[in-house]
Every structure is written in C-alpha cells, then in structure tokens.
Write a sequence for this structure.
C-alpha cells in the first residue's frame, strides 16, 4: 500500500478534518442500525453495507449472500443483453449524425436531505460537497493511481431540502420514490446525488443506466461518507466514486465470483467475494491475478481503494454512449 501515489495527499486531507470529525463523533454514523438488517432492493439497484466485516467474519466465504442487492447471474445476463440492445439502438440513431463522445463532463445536482438544521440532522457544510466533487474528479481522471476515464464532474447545484419524512433515506421505500420523483432534475446525462442518513447501515446505493429515463435514476450516498465526514474508514469520498461507477454501468469486482464473465471487465481479476478493510495478498480465485482490493468497485476501506482499470473506463464510456449521451 505504500506505493499508492496519492495516499499522502488524501491522508493529509483526512488529518486536516480529523478535529472536526472528533467534534461531531456522535453524529449520524454512530446511530445507524446493525448492518445485518438488510432490506430487499429492487432489481437493478446496488446497495452497499456500511461496515459488514463483522458479519462477513461470521459468514466467511459467504459475504455476497449478506447483500441481497448484489446482482444474480440472471440479472447480469439481462443487463448485458440490454446494453447490447442500447448500443444497437444508438448506432442506428447515430448513423450520419453525432459521433460517440470521447470525453464527458457530467453535471451534478446534489440534493442534501435534512431532518433539521443540525449537522446530525443532515446539514453538512458545502465544503464537504465541494471536496466530494474534487475526489470524484481525481478518481475518474486516474490521478489517484488508476486508469484515466472519460469522465469529469461539474457541480451545478446544491439543493437543500428539509423534510423529516425523507430522513433517513430508506432504500426501496415509498418515501425514497416520493423524494426522487419530487427532486430529480435534468436529462439522462445529469447525475442526481442524494445525501442523507441512510437505512440499514448502508453507505449508498445506485441505479444502473436504463434506456428510458426513470425518476429513480441517481445515486444515494451517506452524507457523512463525504471527504471530512464522520464515517470512520469510509469518509474519503469513495462511496460516491463507487456508486457513480454503478451509475456508469460497472458491476462489483466480485460479481459472479471466480467463474464465468465475472464483472464483464477483462482486466479486473476474478474475486470470490467482497473484500473488506484492507487485506494483504488476498487471492480468492485460482484464476490469474490477486484480488482487486484496491479497485473502487470492491468493498474495502476508502484508504485502500484508489483505482479503476482501463477495462472499466472503456465499459463506462461504452455505456455512456449507449445510455446517457444526449
Ligand atoms: Zn456497489
């Protein structure tokens, strides 16, 4: 881990905010329910347990089973077929028209869901949101040590909403649907990010791209997971990076385990199950390559993950041109 190029910078940033984190240590993260209480999610939604390594130790070798939101093989097949269909549709649409994009600036609308005006009630400062955008731009540019992707992010609006019935944000609930139906803005290319306390100890969840715009489209992220937040080990902003990876059509690196097409990306070694914390030398499949624990699409600590691969970058751009490009 000592070779991680940008670790010093990000650790330094963490130190700068540690006093703040201590002062607000009783805020949201400490009161989330145990991570074992996962709720079922609709197909196509990916949810991340916030800190399930305790459970994972109990269920050694069966981590993925703790996360009902992880896609089944059938769901992956359906998504891959849908991508192929979307690509055909766009190819026909584009004949003689617009060339596929090579670089993309994504407008970002951040909805800060609050129960009240206190920090514990969701009122995180703008500075955390600005730092989140910086982290996203570093991650997707490859400047933290991974492959450069086509994507950059431009914050266009911070929309603060005080509504106790939407707080915490409960995955799959009618309140979540109501919130998104009321607040989602922009076209398929607009990233709507919803920040708040989350149900079931989750760090975040995301929708995969679809051929038709859906009001549920977007990412939900634990407010205190933003850089400088209070979510210990998950407060460098990589939940946002990870969830946006799903929004751009990436699967988890452990999707499919050791067999088959895995995460449908050729340069991410297969991985039997999610990795937590920051394990050394983890190698859970007999196929080539050690587990990609430093990949943004695994489940390790923020301090442990710092890269997308070239294959993931390619998959995201393909999906963008198929699904989200104007
Ligand atoms: Zn995920």
């Amino acid at each position: 881990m000592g070779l991680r190029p940008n670790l010093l910078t990000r650790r330094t940033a963490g130190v700068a905010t540690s006093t703040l984190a201590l002062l607000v240590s009783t805020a949201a993260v400490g009161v989330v329910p145990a991570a074992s209480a996962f709720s079922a999610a609709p197909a196509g939604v990916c949810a991340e347990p916030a800190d399930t390594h305790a459970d994972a130790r109990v269920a050694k070798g069966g981590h993925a089973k703790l996360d009902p939101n992880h896609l089944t093989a059938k769901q992956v097949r359906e998504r891959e077929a849908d991508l192929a269909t979307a690509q055909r549709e766009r190819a026909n649409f584009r004949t003689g028209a617009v060339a596929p994009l090579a670089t993309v600036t994504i407008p970002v609308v951040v909805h800060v869901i609050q129960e009240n005006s206190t920090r514990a009630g969701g009122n995180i400062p703008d500075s955390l949101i600005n730092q989140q955008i910086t982290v996203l731009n570093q991650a997707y540019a490859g400047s933290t040590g991974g492959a450069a992707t086509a994507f950059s992010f431009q914050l266009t609006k911070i929309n603060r909403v005080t509504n106790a019935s939407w707080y915490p944000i409960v995955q799959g609930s009618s309140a979540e649907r109501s919130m998104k139906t009321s607040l989602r803005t922009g076209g398929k290319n607009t990233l709507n990010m919803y920040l708040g306390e989350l149900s079931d100890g989750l760090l975040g969840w995301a929708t995969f791209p679809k051929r038709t715009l859906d009001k549920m489209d977007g990412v939900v992220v634990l407010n205190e997971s933003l850089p400088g937040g209070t979510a210990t080990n998950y407060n460098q902003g990589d939940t946002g990076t990870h969830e946006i990876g799903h929004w751009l059509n990436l699967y988890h690196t452990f999707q499919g385990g050791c067999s088959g097409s895995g995460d449908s990306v050729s340069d991410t070694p297969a991985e039997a199950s999610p990795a937590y914390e920051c394990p050394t030398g983890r190698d859970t499949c007999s196929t080539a390559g050690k587990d990609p624990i430093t990949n943004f699409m695994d489940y390790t600590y923020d301090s442990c993950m710092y890269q997308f691969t070239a294959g993931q970058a390619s998959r995201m751009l393909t999906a963008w041109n198929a699904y989200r490009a104007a």
Observations:
- Residues 42 and 198 are 16 Å apart (CA to CA).
- Residues 5-324 form a domain with the Collagenase (Catalytic Domain) fold (CATH 3.40.390.10).
- The chain has seven helices and six strands.
